[in-house]
Amino acid sequence: xxxxxxxxxxxxxxxxxxxxxxxxxxxxxxxxxxxxxxxxxxxxxxxxxxxxxxxxxxxxxxxxxxxxxxxxxxxxxxxxxxxxxxxxxxxxxxxxxxxxxxxxxxxxxxxxxxxxxxxxxxx
Amino acid sequence: xxxxxxxxxxxxxxxxxxxxxxxxxxxxxxxxxxxxxxxxxxxxxxxxxxxxxxxxxxxxxxxxxxxxxxxxxxxxxxxxxxxxxxxxxxxxxxxxxxxxxxxxxxxxxxxxxxxxxxxxxxxxxxxxxxxxxxxxxxxxxxxxxxxxxxxxxxxxxxxxxxxxxxxxxxxxxxxxxxxxxxxxxxxxxxxxxxxxxxxx
Lengths: 123, 200
What we know:
Chain A is of the alpha+beta class. Chain A is built from two helices and six strands. Chain B has one domain (10-194).
């Protein structure tokens, strides 16, 4: 599948609406709101950031390096990501080909939350 | 009848190529250093653009921005260039924050609950807040510099991300490449002139 920014954005937004079965019940991945992140009442949540849009495509050269960029953050109290990791990476691979990578995975000692950060760049 | 072709300057060319091969690792290292300087400058420029707000504990699920003091730590500790890793013609390095440094900061998303799992050398069990007090003074704590940088760059559950390293890589990458390319070409010209060769 060719790298497609609009498709990727749609896929990322879909991820947080797709139901996933965890612990015998279906649930969707909540998305953090602006200036409001930590959710002690839920097990996992995601943050989508589209933080870079530069070099709009022009007529002379349609191939520009890293024209769009964004990231997907997953926070989970479950060290295995509660099943969301596979779903996120499946969608990234489907719509972004090889333009994504897992940038970091760490555990916050302050909150005991696990944090995964995927970065994607669409040329 | 066989054709005879005479080529002038083969000796000079051979000498030039030999010198280029000999100089390549040195030139590559110097070029890489020039590029690393550009990249570290870009990272510092991005750090200076980090948005801040006065320190407060992020309560009730709110996110916060880094405090001016946390930004100042990154500004003053600066960005460094790692020792070069040379392997034949390959030279490798990285630009980033010191991964060994520890700095005193007020740093938590919430007030730390008292715990009694800190054991002093004399065997006394103390709370974490008392342990911090003994070590750094009231209200302060020690955190690795890299953790502060990473928390700002990638964000945390209580701090909004400001990807300054990635932005620096995007903005500075092409500039660094240009600087390195120009440097290598200049060195190439110098070598060919020294040996009497012609690079055109």
